[in-house]
Amino acid sequence: MIEARHLRVLRAVARTGSFSAAARELGCTQPAISQQMKALEKSVDTPLVVRSGRGMQLSEAGRVLLKHATGILAGLSAAEEEIAAIAGLRAGRVRLVSFPTASSTLVPPAVARLRDSHPGVRVSLVEAEPPESLAMLRGGECEIALAFRYPQSDDGVALPAPAHGTPREARAEANLEAQQLSAGSDWSDLVVTPLLDDPLVGLLPAAHRLAGRGRPVELAELAGEQWIAGCPQCRGHLVELCAGAGFEPRIDFATDDYPAVVGLVAAGLGVAVLPRLALESVRPDGVSTVPVRTAAGAPAVRQVVALTLPDLAEVPAVALMLERLAGSAGR
User: Fold this and answer.
1) Which of 92, 136, 154, 190 could form a disulfide with 86 if both were Cys (CB 3.0 to 4.6 A apart)?
2) DSSP at 127
3) pLDDT of residue 185
4) Which of 308, 95, 300, 268 is nearest to 197 (CA)?
5) CA angle in degrees (0–180, nearest 5) for 198-200-205
6) Closest CA to 48 of 65, 33, 67, 31
7) What is the pLDDT of residues 156-192, one digit of tens each?
8) ∠ at Cα 227 (224, 229), nearest 5°?
9) What is the pTM of this model?
10) Residue 65: phi, psi to the nearest 5?
11) What is the DSSP code (8-state) at residue 163?
C-alpha cells in the first residue's frame, strides 16, 4: 500500500537531492525521512533512490513513481480544497424534491435565505409527491425530500377514495394503492425535521348554505354533498375522515391541480377540503373557506416535514438547508 505521505517524501527527496535537505523542507528529522523512504521501497519491493557522490538521485523505478506521484498529490490537494470549501459552505450542492404546495410556499424563501448567506451553495428543485419523493431520497436522487402524511387509521392504512358506486374490482385496485401509500409513510430510517402542522380547510361555493357562518363545519354536515378530491393520498385521508363522521363521500371529480379544485367548487359542482398551505398559492375566487372539524371535534391537519438520510444530515449544506426550511415554515 502506497501512502500519500510517503509520496510527499519521495517528491521532496527528488527535489532537494538528499534526505537531510528533504527533512528541512518538510519540517522533520533526517531519520524520519530515511524510515519513510525505506517503508515506501518496501511497499513497492524495489529501490527508489541511489546514492551518487555526496547526494542521491532517483532510480528508474523512482522516476516512474515520481511521475505518477505528481498527479496523485495534485489530485489529493484539489480534493482537500474542494472538501474544505464544502465543509466551510463556500461550495456544495443540495438537491430538493418537494410536493407542489411546499414548492410554491416553503421552498422559495428558504432557498433565497440560503443563497444570501452562502452564495456558493447550489440548490436545485424537482417536484414529486410522497411516496415517490421518499423513493428518490433513498435512491440517491436528492439530499432532502419535503413530504407530508396524514394521521393513519387504526390499521395503519389510509384508503384511497373509490368513485361513487365503484365495483369490487376497482375497490381491489384502491386497496392495492392504499398499501403502496402506507409503505411510503414509513420514515423510521430517515432523519425527520418537522416543519408545520397544516390544517385542512373546507371549500364551499359562495352561495352554499353553510358558507359564512363564522364557525367550523362538522364533516357530518356535508354528508349529502358531491365532493371534489385531490391527490391519491389526500383522497384516502378524505375517505377516512368521512368514514369517521359516518358516511362515504360521493367523489365526482378528482384532480391534483388545486386551481382546478377551486374552479370546480366556485362553479357549484361540489365541495372540497384542501390544506391551508395550498390556498396560499391559489386565488380562492368564488368560494368560501371554512374551518373543518373531524368527528372527534378536532381540527383536521396534515404533518409537513423535511426528510433526509442520517449520513446526509451531517453534511453542512444539507444541515443549513434544513435549518432554512424550518425557518421558512415558522415565518
Assistant:
1) 92
2) E
3) 63
4) 300
5) 145
6) 65
7) 333 333 333 443 443 344 444 444 444 456 899 999 9
8) 150
9) 0.70
10) -65, -40
11) P
Q: Which spans in the chain are helix H?
A: 4-16, 19-26, 30-44, 60-87, 100-105, 107-117, 132-138, 168-183, 232-244, 258-266, 276-279, 316-330
How far apart (Å, rounded) are the C-alpha atoms in residues 172 and 92? 46
User: Which residue do the cell numbers 397544516 mark?
Assistant: 198
pLDDT digits (tens, 9 = 90+) for 248-297: 999 999 998 889 999 999 999 999 999 999 888 788 788 999 998 887 77
> pLDDT digit string (tens) for 55-68?
788 999 999 999 99
Count Cβ atoms below 10 Å from residue 169 Cβ, excluding itself: 8
Say if residues 184 and 166 touch (Cβ distance below 8 Å): no
Interatomic CA distance for residues 211 and 300, integer angstroms? 18
Written as nine digits, the cell of 319 is 444541515
Q: Which three cell numbers stand for residue 4?
A: 500519500
Residue with cell 538521485: 57
The answer, yes or no, to whether the previous bond of 131 is cis (omega within 30 of 0) is yes
For the chain, the maximum distance between any two Cα atoms, rounded to a whole number of angstroms, is: 106
